[in-house]
Design a protein that fits this description.
14 strands, alpha/beta, single chain, 2 domains, 40% helix, binds nicotinamide-adenine-dinucleotide, Isopropylmalate Dehydrogenase, two-stranded antiparallel sheet, 354 residues
Length: 354
């Protein structure tokens, strides 16, 4: 039976993860694969209980688990600690790095029910269904960095090895092959040598994936196209910094941050979490939107356990609940039926059966 480590974390993390677990338990009930859930501490909760944001016990449990479901970490209580000890750097970034999670996947799908919630015009966002695949452990953020004097200056080196490029682009081809067969590799090959290297390798790899159409796009144009005509994209694959910026930009195409799931993979293991933070401003009130975490659970079934049918069952149940007019307060308009965090989790479980 696969082991799932649940790390609720801080703030609304402790409210939204139980809802995702509830939905996962309901969807696998009576199926051939069931899931075993274990729990651990991360973030501020771990600092308070165990003295550091990523206790050794949590890391060992994460290494042993088949998949990890995380809430979110951080909050004002721990903001005055030195940066390296804080929940975000000492907990979240540390676990991502320790597990070598090199691929960050963020699907962006506009629910027809939420078209009005977007800041963009309905006709632009109504058919959005894309995935941004971001390289997460290389590039500028992990290259050599430093300062120099005379003249005073600072530098960050952008370096990618062939292997780092191949493994993320390969995932892009595989993912596009299972979707609409379109892979757009985003780079800045008109300026950067690392991008020209990326383009050479991805073009060469395309021969092994005749069913996938590979295109290349400069990152500045990609930013514009995501706003201008986002439905032209199926899968976007890109390096770390470009992906950092484009994933946040793309997340707004889906209407609300409370709807955006994510997966970070290393080939054998995945960590699944909502794209938003711990929302201390609304924590403890049973008003947080649990859908991003519930949809992250669907990604876990898809990418860690190859349970595509069950993943889609969760995604359809979320759609059905929204179609019935149920909303958490972050999405609600006058006339909508407003539900709390727990009640939204219950509604998704109920919709699974229908
Ligand atoms: P945030 O995403 O927590 O909140 C931004 C705004 O969105 C807030 O108004 C919040 O109420 C709202 N919001 C977020 N998620 C929501 C949900 N599920 N339902 C309804 N409303 C929601 O970002 P922030 O305020 O910049 O950060 C708060 C804390 O979270 C900080 O300590 C930050 O470092 C941390 N953080 C953690 C992660 C993570 O764990 N992956 C990511 C981002 C921020």
């Amino acid at each position: 039976m696969p082991d799932v480590l649940v790390l609720p974390g801080d703030g609304i993390g402790t409210e939204i993860t139980p809802e995702a677990v509830k939905v996962l338990q309901a969807v696998v009930k009576g199926r051939s694969t069931s899931l075993n859930f274990n729990y651990g501490l991360i973030g501020g909760a771990a600092i308070d209980e165990a003295g550091k944001a990523l206790p050794d016990e949590t890391l060992a449990a994460a290494q042993a688990a088949d998949a990890i479901l995380m809430g979110s970490v951080g909050g004002p209580k721990w903001d005055t600690l030195p940066a390296g000890e804080r929940p975000e750097l000492g907990g979240l970034l540390k676990i991502r790095k320790a597990l070598g999670l090199y691929a960050n996947i963020r699907p962006v799908k506009m629910s027809p029910m939420l078209v009005d919630a977007s800041t963009l015009r309905p006709e632009v966002v109504k058919d959005v269904d894309l995935v941004v695949l971001r390289e997460l452990t290389g590039g500028l953020y992990f290259g050599e960095k430093g300062r120099k004097t005379d003249p005073a200056s600072a530098y960050d080196i952008l370096i990618y090895s062939e292997e780092e490029i191949r493994r993320i682009v390969e995932l892009g081809f595989q993912m596009a092959g299972k979707r609409r067969g379109k892979l757009c590799s985003v780079d800045k090959a008109n300026v950067l040598e690392s991008s020209r290297f990326w383009r050479e390798i991805s073009s060469e790899m395309a021969k092994d994936y005749p069913d996938v159409e590979l295109t290349h796009m400069y990152v500045d144009n990609a930013a514009m196209q995501l706003i201008r005509q986002p439905n032209q994209f199926d899968v976007i694959v890109t390096e770390n910094m470009f992906g950092d910026i484009l994933t946040d930009l793309a997340s707004m195409l889906g209407g609300s941050i409370g709807m955006m799931p994510s997966a970070s993979l290393n080939g054998t293991k995945g960590l699944y979490e909502p794209s938003h933070g711990s929302a201390p401003d609304i924590a403890g009130q049973n008003i947080a939107n649990p859908l991003a975490t519930i949809l992250s659970g669907a990604l876990m079934l898809r990418y860690s356990f190859d349970m595509e049918e069950e993943a889609q069952m969760i995604e359809r149940a979320v759609e059905a609940v929204l179609a019935d007019g149920y909303r958490t307060p972050d999405l609600a308009k006058p006339g909508d039926k407003v539900l709390g965090t727990r009640e939204m989790g219950n509604a998704v479980v109920e919709a699974l059966g229908s």
